[in-house]
Design brief:
236 residues, 6 helices, five-stranded mixed sheet, Nucleotidyltransferase, domain 5, six-stranded mixed sheet
Length: 236
């Protein structure tokens, strides 16, 4: 048995791998993630984008993946790997392992990240932008009067008749437009969106997949599967 752990900026998700299938565990707030939350005496393979969480788990033997220790399933030599997030590494590996290439993964979380893998299994980089929740927080934090509006699954389709409605329209449709533009730009060298696998993963993925027909919603365990595959060489 192996614990596969994805530590995100806001939430973390674990799964138990028994050699045949992943058994997903409930989401945990990353701020609440401690060694006590993890099953004892079981190897742990993890990806994290939160240095503080990594420090908090220092008392536990955890093998953290990155682009330099993830095996040879993907060629990362064409990009700067020194700051490449482990979640993006896992997404690229899962994309190449389970879907036709070339492809793009759109990870919709606190940040929106896009990962591109070409037909030769070479990672070609991507893009990073703020997610819908982070946009709301930044707008409220950076202004004197605008409130922080709760996240909604509704898709605004008319001019806002008040501040809250205007924020929802600006951020939510704006975020959809942002993803559309980035996917179109990144897919252009490969013949366009229709020539590529384009996946959506992450906690906010259903919202974007509903709004953008070219996005295929990835399975819930998608990134965890990538972490599992990336960590195989670390188990010895």
């Amino acid at each position: 048995m192996v614990v596969i752990l994805n530590i995100g900026n806001t939430f973390s998700r674990a799964a138990l791998w028994d050699g045949e299938a992943l058994r997903l565990q409930p989401h945990v707030g990353t701020g609440e993630l401690t060694c006590e939350v993890l099953p004892g005496e079981v190897p742990v393979i993890a990806a994290t984008v939160v240095p503080e969480a990594k420090e908090r788990l220092a008392g536990r033997d955890i093998r953290f993946i990155d682009a330099r220790n993830c095996g040879t399933r993907i060629d990362f030599t064409q990009v700067d790997t020194s700051t490449l997030g482990a979640d993006r590494v896992a997404n690229a590996i899962a994309l190449a392992e389970f879907y036709p290439l070339p492809g793009i993964v759109v990870d919709c979380g606190t940040a929106i990240t896009l990962e591109v893998v070409d037909g030769e299994r070479i990672f070609r980089g991507g893009a990073i932008a703020p997610g819908r929740r982070l946009m709301r927080h930044a707008l409220a934090f950076g202004t004197a009067q605008l409130p922080e509006v709760a996240l909604s699954e509704e898709f605004p389709d008319h001019a806002g008749n008040g501040t809250v409605e205007s924020i929802c329209l600006g951020i939510d449709r704006g975020a959809v437009g942002l993803v559309r533009e980035l996917v179109e730009t990144l897919s252009r060298p490969y013949g366009g969106v229709e020539k590529m696998t384009v996946l959506a993963t992450g906690g906010d993925a259903p919202y974007f997949a509903k709004a953008l027909p070219f996005l295929e919603l990835a399975p819930e365990e998608f990134t965890l599967q990538g972490i599992r595959l990336a960590g195989e060489s670390l188990l010895g």
